[in-house]
Amino acid sequence: MQYIESSDHMTIQENVSLKAYNTFGIEASARYFVETSSTKDLQQLIKTPLYQQQELFILGGGSNVLLTQNFEGLVVKMSIPGIEVVEENENEVVVRAGAGENWHEFVLHCIARGYGGIENLSLIPGTVGAAPMQNIGAYGVEIKDVFESLEAVDLQTAELKVFKHEDCKFGYRESVFKNVLKGKYIITQVSFRLSKQANINTSYGAIEETLKEMRSQSNYKARTAIEEVSEAVIQIRQSKLPDPKEIGNAGSFFKNPVLSAEKFQVLKTDYPQVPGYPLEDGSVKVPAGWLIEQCGWKGKKVGNTGVHSKQALVLVNHGNAQGNEVRKLAMQIKDSVWQKFEVEIMPEVNII
Ligand code: EPU
Fold this sequence. Notes:
This protein has helices spanning 39-46, 49-53, 103-112, 165-168, 207-216, 225-240, 261-270, 288-294, 323-341, and strands at residues 2-6, 11-17, 29-36, 56-59, 65-66, 71-78, 83-88, 92-98, 137-138, 141-142, 147-154, 160-164, 185-195, 248-252, 258-259, 277-278, 284-285, 301-302, 305-307, 314-317, 350-351. With 352 residues, it is α+β, with helices and mostly antiparallel strands. The protein has three domains: 2-78, Uridine Diphospho-n-acetylenolpyruvylglucosamine Reductase, domain 2 (2-Layer Sandwich), CATH 3.30.43.10; 83-195, Uridine Diphospho-n-acetylenolpyruvylglucosamine Reductase, domain 3; 248-351, Uridine Diphospho-n-acetylenolpyruvylglucosamine Reductase, domain 1, CATH 3.90.78. Strand 1 (2-6) and strand 2 (11-17) form a beta hairpin. Residues 138-139, 205, 240-241, 251-252, 255-256, 275, 287, 289-290, 293, 298, 311-313, 348 line the site of uridine-diphosphate-2(N-acetylglucosaminyl) butyric acid.
């Protein structure tokens, strides 16, 4: 490792291992690597010749990426810190956070102050800056439900731009930053409009059941409603999803496919047990985890890789797996789902 350029705030390093920077725990290196902890630093970086000559990869928490090769360009690790209240009234508060803040710690920070709206998104790995990119969601809530605005730096001109809700074009695991504006901006700050009144959403899956169980335990301590929901979500996630500190993974590897009503009916005729969640436009979202499980993959080990035993949507690194091995397994899974159901499943993680 060699230091090739530095200022008071920033050091560009060469040949840096990315193993500690991706939750799959895959070994790959970056030709150049820099960590930025302020918007100003980032704007300065964009003006350097090195930046302008290199292919770029922006890294948040590394929890949604599969590295299949060494990266020959510049990796920018976003570490902008800070959480502040920028607007407040009797009922609501707007909280602005730096892109580098850990998502779950940010959630806990808000819960501790009685700010509700993101408690269902507890324990999601990653950073605040990455959250709007794919409109993270869990247990009936998505970022778009509480999103106020974000600030992002133009990767060409270094200018700062504010994006309002409608500018972001949020969809299921989608935003404008994954589509038309892909590779054009770096998100530096995100603001959320949160509620001071507990407006909890416990309709999804096992939340109600888990809450009941929690309350019936003899050592139960009274908590606020949003604390309770957060705790229930944490329990559910811990029971299904592997902790990246123990076993490398990037959460759901695939998106849940959305089928037309007609296609879903055909599937339902052949497989009456297929679960489906109807969407507003009449289409139906089918859990990819179910499709994958039906193909016999759940809990399977293939070399150093595998499919998690408690949630078939999660691919894991059993230790020393290479990115290509995981990709190969993912392709085999995708093919088998297609063979059996004629349904195409698409990766949710970013494959580099
Ligand atoms: N299912 C199976 N087998 C499995 C897994 C799931 O049959 O191995 C079926 C069951 O019918 C189950 C249903 O799928 O009831 C839904 O499962 P789950 O509640 O675990 O949710 P999911 O649709 O598999 C999505 C998100 C998760 C998020 C959960 C909870 C996507 C791609 N994934 O998974 O997000 O935590 O809902 O809201 O939308 C992530 O993005 O990394 C992630 C973990």
